[in-house]
Amino acid sequence: MKIYTKTGDKGLTGLIGGKRIPKSDIRIIAYGSVDELNSYIGLSLSLLSKYNTNSSSSSSSSFSDIIVTLSRIQNELFVIGSDLADPDLSKSSSLRVQSNMITVLENDIDNYEKELSPITYFILPGGSVDSSNLHIARSIARRAETNVAKLFSEDMINNLVLVYLNRLSDLLFVLSRTINKRLQISDIAWKP
Fold first, then answer.
1. Phi/psi zone of residue 155: left (φ > 0), alpha (ψ -120 to 50 degrees), beta?
2. 12-189: which CATH topology?
């Protein structure tokens, strides 16, 4: 099977169920930004995996739990894309965001926050490259959430997608701080 189908050459794309809509439709923009987020998390995972291949590094296994978490999230983002690509909410599908997915994100946030000092100042993205990458992913998650919110205002969607993306951006913030802490690099305080 060839990768190119030529079916989108006139600016239309297909949704689950066969309906064709313009590629500029907010639904396509919404799940396209989720795909971008997934890709950026993939980059972050690739960069974090360097710690697991260098056995002489004192942090060789310090990110294995974060790698597992981000890998799970990548799979869940694929579910979100599928959820958004299927406008027929009347049919049940295993490829829909479920409330238990959000509960797991909340548990992740709580568990990783146990390692961190309470925030007493605004934090600027940075510190380490790995932390900075997750701050970029967090920003992409916020944009994806904004695009999904726009779609939600115009069409029926699974509202749990919005909740999931909101929690995910919070988790990415906490993970970026956790990475800096484990690397013994201070977060960067905003100085007004």
1. beta
2. Hypothetical Protein Ta1238; Chain: A; (1.20.1200)
Q: What is the pTM of this model?
A: 0.90
pLDDT in tens, 73-100: 999 999 999 999 988 888 777 789 999 9
Burial (0-12, 13-18, 19+ Cβ within 10 Å), 130: buried
Half-sphere exposure of 84 (CA within 13 A, CB side): 29
3-state SS, residue 86: coil
Q: H-type helices in the chain, by residue range?
A: 26-48, 50-53, 64-85, 99-113, 129-154, 160-182
Q: Which amino acid is at 14?
A: G
pLDDT for position 37: 98
| List of the chain residues with pLDDT < 50 | 59-60
